[in-house]
C-alpha cells in the first residue's frame, strides 16, 4: 500500500514511521524546506533555535518509549526548569516549572489556599492515570467547565491566578477563561511525571529520528488539492500528482480545513473550522557573550492578574546548552496576537526587548529573529475533544486525519495522532485483504 503523508511535522513523521513498519510505502510531502513543522530547529550564526516546542515532558509516554527503542534517550538532557514568577509588584518568586507543586510557595496564597490546592492536586495525583494527550481520556475529563471555572471551584481564585496561570500560560498560551479544564485535570493525574528533557541538537531532532529510514520525503512540495475514490487518493502538487492507495493529512488545522473542504463531509470541515488557533510571534535574541551568567533562573512567567501579555521569557542556553556556542546565549519570548496586532516587525522586536528587560535585564542583542506563528497552539474549548474525535472517526476510510490539534498541542499529542491514523489505515488494508 502506498500512503501519501501530507506534512513532515511530528504527526506526519509518526504516521510515516508507523506506515513503514506495517510494511507499506509512505510518501511524505512537506511544503517547507525542512522537516519538523512547529518543532523545527533552525540554525543561525552558529546558534540552534527551536522555533516552536521547547521540551519533552515526562508524561510523553509514547514519545519516550520510541526514543528508548531507537536508542536516543541518552541524547535527552534533563532541564530543571528553574523558574521565576513575576508578580504585580515586580518581585520574582523562584519555583520549578517541572515541579508544579512548588507554585504553592507563592506568598500571595494564604495557608487555606495552599491546603485547598494541595488537597485537590493530591486527590488527582492519587486517582487513576488519565492521558493528558489521549483524546478519549480528555473527552471523558471534559465536563463542560473552563479551566477558570474548574480552578475557581476546586482551588480558589488566588490559586487560579498564582498557581494555575503561571503553570498553564507557557503550556497552552490560551485564555484560561475559555479553554477546557480537561488538560490540567488529566495532567495532574501524572504530576509525578512532569520532569522536562530536551534533545541535543534541538526539538527538531525528534521528527528527524521518527523519519529515519523513510526514503521518500519530498521537501518544498506544497499540496494544492486532494481527490479520492473508494480505492485511490490523488494528491496534487506543483510538480504533478501523487497517486496513492491512501493518505494522511498531518498539517496544522487551518491547512487541513482548506485541503479537505469539498473533499469530505462538511460536518468534518465545519468542526475543523471551529477550532480556535492561538496566533503568536516567537522572538529570539542572540548574544555571542551571555549577558546573564549569574541569573539564578532560566524562565520568567507572570503570576498576577492582568500581567499575562506573553507566555514567558526563556534562556535557551540553560534549557539546551548545546544550542549556543561556548559562552553564548539566546533568549526566547512569545507575544500573543493581542499584543502584536497591527505592529510592524520592528515594533514587535522593541516590545519583546522590553519583556526581556523585565525578565532578565536589558542588553543589546547581536541578532534577533522573529517567527510568526499563525497556528502556534490551539485553544481547546469545552467540547473540543469530543468534536475532534467525531471528526477523526468520520473521515473516509482511505483518508485519515492527524495532528496535535485533535487534542490540543504538543509533541506527544501529534505523535499519538499520527500513529492512530496509520493504525486505522492498516486496519482498512487488512480488512480488504481478508475480504479478497
Automatic annotation (TrEMBL):
SUPFAM superfamilies: FAD/NAD(P)-binding domain. It comes from the Bacteria. Transmembrane segments: none annotated. GO terms for molecular function: oxidoreductase activity. Residues 11-425 form the Amine oxidase domain. It comes from Mycolicibacterium anyangense. This is Amine oxidase domain-containing protein. Pfam families: Amino_oxidase (PF01593).
Amino acid at each position: 500500500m502506498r500512503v501519501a503523508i501530507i506534512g513532515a511535522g511530528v504527526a506526519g513523521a509518526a504516521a510515516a514511521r508507523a506506515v513503514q513498519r506495517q510494511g507499506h510505502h509512505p510518501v511524505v510531502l512537506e511544503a517547507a524546506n525542512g522537516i519538523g513543522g512547529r518543532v523545527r530547529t533552525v540554525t543561525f550564526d552558529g546558534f540552534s533555535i527551536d522555533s516552536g516546542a521547547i521540551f519533552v515532558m515526562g508524561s510523553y509516554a509514547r514519545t519516550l518509549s520510541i526514543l528508548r527503542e531507537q536508542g536516543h534517550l541518552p541524547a535527552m538532557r534533563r532541564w530543571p526548569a528553574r523558574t521565576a514568577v513575576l508578580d504585580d509588584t515586580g518581585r520574582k518568586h523562584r519555583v520549578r516549572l517541572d515541579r508544579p507543586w512548588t507554585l504553592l510557595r507563592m506568598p500571595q496564597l494564604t495557608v487555606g489556599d495552599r491546603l485547598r490546592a494541595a488537597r485537590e492536586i493530591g486527590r488527582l495525583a492519587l486517582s487513576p492515570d488519565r492521558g493528558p494527550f489521549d483524546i478519549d481520556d480528555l473527552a471523558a475529563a471534559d465536563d463542560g467547565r473552563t479551566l477558570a471555572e474548574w480552578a475557581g471551584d476546586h482551588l480558589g481564585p488566588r490559586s487560579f491566578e498564582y498557581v494555575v496561570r503561571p503553570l498553564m500560560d507557557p503550556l497552552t498560551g490560551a485564555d484560561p477563561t475559555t479553554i477546557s479544564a480537561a488538560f490540567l485535570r488529566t495532567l495532574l493525574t501524572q504530576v509525578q511525571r512532569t520532569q522536562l528533557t530536551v534533545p541535543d541538537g534541538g526539538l527538531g531532532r525528534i521528527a528527524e529520528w521518527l523519519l529515519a529510514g523513510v526514503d521518500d520525503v519530498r521537501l518544498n512540495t506544497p499540496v494544492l488539492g486532494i481527490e479520492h475514490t473508494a480505492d485511490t487518493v490523488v494528491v496534487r502538487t506543483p510538480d504533478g500528482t501523487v497517486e496513492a492507495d491512501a493518505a494522511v493529512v498531518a498539517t496544522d488545522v487551518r491547512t487541513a480545513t482548506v485541503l479537505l473542504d469539498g473533499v469530505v463531509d462538511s460536518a468534518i470541515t465545519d468542526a475543523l473550522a471551529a477550532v480556535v488557533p492561538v496566533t503568536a510571534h516567537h522572538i529570539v535574541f542572540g548574544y555571542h557573550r551571555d549577558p546573564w551568567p549569574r541569573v539564578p533562573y532560566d524562565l520568567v512567567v507572570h503570576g498576577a492578574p492582568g500581567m499575562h501579555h506573553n507566555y514567558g521569557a526563556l534562556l535557551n542556553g540553560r534549557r539546551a546548552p548545546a544550542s549556543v556556542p561556548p559562552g553564548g546565549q539566546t533568549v526566547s519570548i512569545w507575544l500573543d496576537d493581542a499584543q502584536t496586532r497591527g505592529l510592524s516587525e520592528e515594533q514587535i522586536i522593541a516590545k519583546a526587548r522590553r519583556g526581556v528587560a523585565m525578565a532578565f535585564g536589558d542588553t543589546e542583542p547581536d541578532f534577533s529573529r522573529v517567527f510568526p506563528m499563525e497556528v502556534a497552539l490551539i485553544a481547546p474549548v469545552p467540547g473540543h475533544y469530543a468534536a475532534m474525535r467525531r471528526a477523526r472517526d468520520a473521515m473516509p476510510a482511505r483518508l485519515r486525519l492527524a495532528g496535535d490539534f485533535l487534542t490540543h498541542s504538543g509533541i506527544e499529542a501529534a505523535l499519538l495522532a499520527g500513529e492512530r491514523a496509520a493504525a486505522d489505515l492498516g486496519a482498512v488494508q487488512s480488512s480488504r485483504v481478508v475480504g479478497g
